[in-house]
Structure formats: structure tokens, C-alpha cells
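Bumping with the actual sequence this time:
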Amino acid sequence: MPPWAVPVADYLAGGLRQTALLALVSIAASLVAGVPLGAVLTLPNRPARALARAYVEIWRGLPILIILFFVFFVLPVIGIRVGTFTAAATGLSLWGSANAAEVVRGAVQSVPRGQAEAAAALGFPWTGRMRHVLLPQAARRALPPMIGLVVNLTQQTSLAAVIGLLDVLEAAQRSIERLTLTGGSPHAVPILGAVLAVFFVVCLPLTLLSRWYERRLR
């Protein structure tokens, strides 16, 4: 094993921990905010539905990179200062929650209308219809695209490097630069290959799980 490998591996491990934590926080926040938003998109109340739709269209329609720049560079202008991790988690969560809301909306609206009508005839309010009738059936339909969203969010954590977060990609880039300055050889292929392998090992099983579950639902 070359002498540079162990220090670089330790440095990449620190970046990997940041990447894993960022992915977990972003996924959790996206689901916690996205599921209620998706339910609101099916409300009969038009103003509430319009507000939720505006949120979804704004954050779903912007590239993640632009959202990260907005959170990290624009918010300090109005007096809101955030660190790199908080900015990255906020930006990814805004984009993820908007997409999760759209997934939930589509899944709820795919449930046959007669189910909601029957629950209403039995005296269930909208919250009761959602909780006991619609969401349990929609969950099965929403699971494959939700797994796809989780994979997408995990992959998009690499964009946090552009605002200076020391994730696994930023750690790889700094290691390449340091080796270039000290030894003249960047060793970019094995270092970036290790980063590629990490994302592949994490994302491929989730992608296969999503495809398998989708085939089973059919």
C-alpha cells in the first residue's frame, strides 16, 4: 500500500461521515415536510392548496445548485447567517420536500375516488379520510418513487462541496490538490474511484429495491 493511502483514507472517512449525516438530515426533513404538503395539495380548500402548490413549484422548479447558492449567499444579505452544513441541509430539504409532496399528491389522487366518497358517507372528516383510508393505500404507490427520491438526494449531497462543505467529494478534491503540491502526482484516479465506489455501493441497492417493489406492485 502506498504511503499516501492511509492518510487520504482517513481524510475521506471524515468527509464520508459529513456526507452520510447530510443525506440523513435532508431525507428526514424532506419526508417530514413533504408528506403533509402532499396531503394539503389534495385539500378541497383552494387557498391552502394554492399556497402549497406555490411552495412546490418554486423549489421543485429550481436547480439544487441555485437553491444552495441562494441559502448560503443570499440569506446573509438579509441578516440570516448559516454554516455550510446548515445551508446544504436546508437547500436539499427544500428541493426534496417539494418533490416528496408531489409524489404524495400523485399517490393519493391515484386511489379510486370511490374510497374517499365511501369514507365521507360514513362520516369521516377530511383528516380521518386521509389518515385511515387514503394515505394507507397511497403509501404502497408512493414507495417506489420515494425510494428514487432518497437515492437522488443522496447523490445530490455531492453538490454541497460548491459552498465549501467538507463532504467526501470535497475531501477527495483537497487530497488530490495536496498530493499534487507535495509529491507532484495527484493520484486522482484511485481517489475519485473510491468516491465513485462509495456512492455506487450506497445507491445501487436502493435503486434495485425500488425497481423490485415497482414490479411487485404491478
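The C-alpha cells above came from a reply further down the thread. The mean pLDDT is 90.
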